[in-house]
Amino acid sequence: MERFRDRGLRGVGDLVEKPFDPTNNAMSYTASPDTLLETPLAIQQAAPNPANAPSGRFFAEIGIASGMRVLDVGCGNGDLSRLVARMVGPDGEVVAIDRSPEAMAMGRSAEAGPKAAPIRYQQADLAGALPKLGRFDAVIGRRVLMYLPDASATLARLAALAAPGAIMAFQEHGRAGLPAGLGGLPLHRRLYDLLWDTVAAEEGDTGLALRLADLMLSAGHGIEVARSEGILLQAGEPSFLPTLAQAMLPRMVERGVASAQEVGLDTLAERLREEHRVVGGTIVWDLAFLVSARVGLDR
Question: pTM, whole model, 2 decimals?
Answer without folding.
Answer: 0.85
